[in-house]
């Protein structure tokens, strides 16, 4: 099955939560889901995986693949992989990321890949997340927010993906609350402006619970349509 790449309009929008919710729902539907976070940057956790995203994703997908395969590059600096690698004097080898992906792809039905930042987050000078999506030949989901400003970020992201012929399954509006756009209005306008479906909109959950969040995803959209 084609991998599913979860990207977003920015950092901190909900890639990890959406990816975890999808992984949990697909797993419950009998699909063996692998997960990958090729690049992670930020504060290193004291116990377990270096990146907290990996803890959330592996728990959701119920996998025990080795950390160096699911996250070949971790940088303990809150920056893009390009900047972090420059600052730390590390050379990023994209072919190594592809090898890790192929290993996961062989042992799972589908691999869900969480990006980092947005689609133009740089990995190398001439290589950004969007190039990785292309190399992985992945279907893509774009996670966006309901904050004022999201329309600009979403249209920019979708247009860039279209220019690069990236197949996009649709948009997910995540973490909405009463301070942003009204959701029916935002769903209407984002789908009209991008010509893409809004697959579902997920509320801010005061007390986050993966099982409830994932059940909402399953209720609101056809998750099996993501698997092709
Ligand atoms: N639906 C939601 N309800 C409540 N909190 C949420 C929801 N979605 C995301 N969050 C919170 O928002 C923050 C960002 O979410 P998440 O870590 O999934 O974003 P991200 O896009 O993966 O960020 P990064 O770029 O750091 O990987 C997290 O602290 C999470 O707790
Ligand atoms: Mg994340």
UniProtKB/TrEMBL annotation:
Active-site residues (renumbered): 37
Main location: cytoplasm
InterPro entries per record: DTB_synth_BioD, P-loop_NTPase
Subcellular compartments: Cytoplasm
Domain of life where this protein originates: Archaea
Keywords: ATP-binding, Biotin biosynthesis, Cytoplasm, Ligase, Magnesium, Metal-binding, Nucleotide-binding
Listed pathway(s): Cofactor biosynthesis; biotin biosynthesis; biotin from 7,8-diaminononanoate: step 1/2
EC number(s) reported in the record: 6.3.3.3
Pfam families tied to this protein: AAA_26
Catalytic activity: (7R,8S)-7,8-diammoniononanoate + CO2 + ATP = (4R,5S)-dethiobiotin + ADP + phosphate + 3 H(+)
Residue sites binding ATP per the record: 12-17, 53, 114-117, 174-175
Keyword Transport recorded: no
Gene Ontology CC terms, in alphabetical order: cytosol
Keyword Cytoplasm tagged: yes
Amino acids binding Mg(2+): 16, 53, 114
Single Gene Ontology MF annotation: dethiobiotin synthase activity
EC primary class: ligase
GO biological process: biotin biosynthetic process
Swiss-Prot/TrEMBL cofactor(s): Mg(2+)
PANTHER family reported for this sequence: DETHIOBIOTIN SYNTHETASE (PTHR43210)
Sequence similarity: Belongs to the dethiobiotin synthetase family.
Function: Catalyzes a mechanistically unusual reaction, the ATP-dependent insertion of CO2 between the N7 and N8 nitrogen atoms of 7,8-diaminopelargonic acid (DAPA, also called 7,8-diammoniononanoate) to form a ureido ring.
Record text on subunit structure and interactions: Homodimer.
This protein's name: ATP-dependent dethiobiotin synthetase BioD
Gene encoding the protein: bioD
């Amino acid at each position: 099955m084609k991998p599913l790449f979860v990207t977003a309009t920015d950092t901190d929008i909900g890639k990890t939560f959406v990816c975890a919710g999808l992984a949990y729902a697909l797993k419950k539907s009998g699909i063996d889901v692998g997960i990958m976070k090729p690049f992670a940057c930020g504060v290193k956790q004291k116990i377990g995986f270096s990146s907290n995203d990996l803890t959330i994703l592996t728990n959701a997908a119920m996998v025990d693949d080795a950390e160096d395969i699911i996250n070949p590059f971790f940088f303990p600096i809150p920056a893009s992989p390009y900047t972090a690698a420059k600052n730390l004097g590390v050379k990023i080898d994209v072919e190594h990321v592809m090898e890790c992906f192929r290993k996961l792809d062989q042992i799972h039905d589908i691999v869900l890949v969480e990006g980092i930042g947005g689609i133009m987050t740089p990995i190398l000078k001439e290589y950004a997340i969007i190039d990785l999506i292309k190399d992985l030949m992945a279907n893509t989901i774009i996670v966006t927010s309901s904050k004022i400003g999201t329309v600009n970020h979403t249209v920019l992201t979708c247009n860039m993906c279209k220019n690069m012929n990236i197949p996009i399954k649709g948009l997910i509006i995540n973490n909405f609350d009463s301070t942003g756009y009204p959701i029916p209005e935002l769903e209407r306008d984002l789908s009209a402006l991008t010509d893409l479906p809004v697959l579902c909109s997920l509320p801010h959950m005061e007390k986050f619970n993966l099982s409830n969040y994932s059940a909402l995803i399953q209720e609101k959209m056809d998750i099996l349509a993501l698997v092709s």
